[in-house]
């Protein structure tokens, strides 16, 4: 239950962040500032900063969820490496938390961050950019570390099939994509120091912020959804097999054997249905079960 909660929380927070970004785009994010009305500039800046702050917080939850999954996967093995996972989780959470604080300290008063017409100063922009570079570097390292970590621990797990081990390594290895996005995001941070055309400059940064966020969530969630995918595949395969068999007359022993196997406890009803025999409502219900 705890791991499931860890997976749901990042997705819920990411949804809120995506909604905020969508509202910012609605007001003109990505357009040049001289093409947007003052009221829309205020609204798009506000929602864009909200989206960025929430996405930063979400990355903390998402990486923590991946680390929790890896801890569960180890099942008591490699005691000393478990501390590395804890360290990665704590350090990236602390750095990203400081980065959020730096965002709100860029301007005084803070409202000037999204409303440039308010009297005040924005002397903290350069310092916030440095915070962003550091956070981006830590984030990229964390993504690469979490992507490579399963390779070193999963080979010694005895109760898991080789195909499953390879699949988990490949899926979590997709975190390399998130790490690459974090690097590009760090490079893009310098653009937001261009306060003369901030509405245009922030669009590119947001692209990479959300690319990193969603890739961390997607690749971190897929392994825990394996049972859902398997059950879905079985249900689809069973439905297709039933349909194919029932659409042709059972004129040989192979068809009779397949029908008997699929029908299970409702053998007589399944066979009768395949032959087109009209059954009573109760018999049909039993056959369906």
From TrEMBL:
Residues 14-229 form the Rhodopsin domain. It is found in: Membrane. GO terms for cellular component: membrane. Keywords: Membrane, Transmembrane, Transmembrane helix. It is a multi-pass membrane protein. The chain crosses the membrane at residues 49-72, 84-104, 133-154, 166-187, 207-225. InterPro entries: Rhodopsin_dom_fungi, SAT4-like. The keyword Membrane applies. Signal peptide: none annotated. Belongs to the SAT4 family. This is Rhodopsin domain-containing protein. It comes from Penicillium brevicompactum.
């Amino acid at each position: 239950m705890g791991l499931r909660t860890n997976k749901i929380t990042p997705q819920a927070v990411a949804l809120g962040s995506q909604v905020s970004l969508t509202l910012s785009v609605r007001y003109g994010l990505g357009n040049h500032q001289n093409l947007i009305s003052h009221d829309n500039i205020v609204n798009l800046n506000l929602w864009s900063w909200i989206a960025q702050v929430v996405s930063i917080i979400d990355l903390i939850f998402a990486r923590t969820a991946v680390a929790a999954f890896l801890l569960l996967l180890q099942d008591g093995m490699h005691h000393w490496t478990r501390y590395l996972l804890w360290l990665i989780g704590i350090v990236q959470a602390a750095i990203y938390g400081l980065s959020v604080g730096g965002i709100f300290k860029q301007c005084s008063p803070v409202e000037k961050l999204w409303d440039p017409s308010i009297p005040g100063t924005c002397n903290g922009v350069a310092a916030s950019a440095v915070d962003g570079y550091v956070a981006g570097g830590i984030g990229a390292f964390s993504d690469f570390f979490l992507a490579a970590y399963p390779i070193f621990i999963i080979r010694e797990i005895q109760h898991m099939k080789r195909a499953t081990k390879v699949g988990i390594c490949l899926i979590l290895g997709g975190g390399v994509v998130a790490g690459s996005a974090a690097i590009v995001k760090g490079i893009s941070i310098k653009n937001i120091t261009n306060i003369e055309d901030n509405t245009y400059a922030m669009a590119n940064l947001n692209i990479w912020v959300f690319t990193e966020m969603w890739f961390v969530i997607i690749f971190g969630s897929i392994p825990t959804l394996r049972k859902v995918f398997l059950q879905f595949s079985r249900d689809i395969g069973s439905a297709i097999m039933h349909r194919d068999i029932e659409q042709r007359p059972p004129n040989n022993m192979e068809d009779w054997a397949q029908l008997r196997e699929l029908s299970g406890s409702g053998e007589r009803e399944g066979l009768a249905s395949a032959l087109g025999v009209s059954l009573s409502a109760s018999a049909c219900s039993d056959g369906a079960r």
